[in-house]
Amino acid sequence: PPSSPAPPGTPAPMAPRPSGFSSLPSRPPSTPTPTATGQPGSVAALLEERRAVPPSPAELRLREEGIRTTFIPDVSIPRPRMVLDLTDMTAFLMSPAPRGLIVQCCIERFKGLYPRFDVFLEEPRRFLMSARLRKKSKSVNFLVSMNEQDLARASLNYLGKIRAGFFSNDYVAYDKGENPATVDRDRASGLAARQEMAHIAFGASKTPPRSIRVILPAVRPDGSRVICRPFEEHESLIHRASEDPELIVLENKVPVLDPVTNQYRMDFHGRVTQPSVKNFQLIRARDPGADVLLQFGRTGKNNFTLDFSFPLCPFQAFAIAVAALHKKTA
Questions:
Q1: With contact defined as beta carbons under 8 Å apart, do 264 and 258 qualify?
Q2: Exposed, middle or buried, 259 (CB in 10 Å: 0-12/13-18/19+)?
Q3: 38 conformational bin, left if phi > 0, alpha if psi -120 to 50, beta if neither
Q4: Whole-number Å distance between alpha carbons of 312 and 281
Q5: What is the dihedral angle through the alpha carbons of 278, 283, 284, 287, rounded to the nearest 10 degrees?
Q6: Nearest Cα to 173, choosing from 112, 238, 118, 127?
């Protein structure tokens, strides 16, 4: 006899499914991936779409027992991201990093007669600076520019330089100011003299772990940096470091020797993936428990990560990394 019509609200019968397949209706191929709530393809829209699909008898039984049969991840949960003001790139590169924020960067190395290093902001990926060994120079100088193809000192993209000592055991990073020997400190032109931004010194040991000492001008409470514009040798960072409270001294964090593998280990929180004698972390001197202010390490044959925070600025952090990459000993 013909069957009577089903009462209103009764789910339509479903065709038998092959064994081994879920009884849940699959999402149509055209359904977009969940993004933000309230928009097409959002979590809310996906839930509405799922509600419009008649549940199977198996789903009804599970719901009666209080078991959810559909899992939709909450993709709308905000994730913390770096908030950096890049509208004035020069100001960003030469100013201290925002307090409480770790700036994550990556560096690419290009070997050759005149090696070049490019640094990028990781998220969002954006080119920041390039440093290349200066051509036809009697001393070792890396010119730093905001354009990897334009590293001329007269360029508007020029930021400064990193000069190596005679044995490449120490490096000094300068801004784009003039050589103090060419200006008069007693006149207005004295303000055009270059500033020392960082002094980087490496220990003489040829066996790891190598020691690193960095001297920086301090940052005042108002966010301005102490100016170090030496006209005489005794006014330089290296000669003022032992007695000047307006300077900051950093040193490398001592790694731990693993007695099983006989290798030095440090926790880079997943940011460094390959062992190298060039991997290091910097903390405030004479404070073993201090926070790491800069870490640098290898992730590939010519790829490295560079993470830093206040009071370092991007230019200073990059100068430290370039010095570490150029340094041959240890």
A1: yes
A2: exposed
A3: left
A4: 13
A5: -120
A6: 238
Burial of residue 215 (number of CB atoms within 10 Å: 0-12, 13-18, 19+): buried
Confidence at 72, pLDDT banded by 50, 70, 90: very low
Which pLDDT tens digit goes with each residue over 269-285? 899 999 888 899 999 99
Looking at residue 218, its pLDDT comes to 94
C-beta of residue 253 within 8 angstroms of C-beta of residue 263 = no
Q: What dihedral do alpha carbons 251, 270, 255, 311 form, nearest 10°?
A: 10
- pLDDT 10s digits, 106-159: 999 999 889 999 999 998 899 999 999 988 788 889 999 999 988 888 899 999
- Pick the more confident residue, 11 or 133: 133
> Do residues 280 and 251 make contact, with C-beta atoms less than 8 angstroms apart?
no
Contact 169, 324 (CB under 8 A): no
Between CA 312 and CA 316 the distance in angstroms is 6
Structure tokens at 97: 């990093």
The CA–CA distances, whole Å, from 135 to 49, 119, 181, 238, 313 equal 65, 20, 22, 27, 27
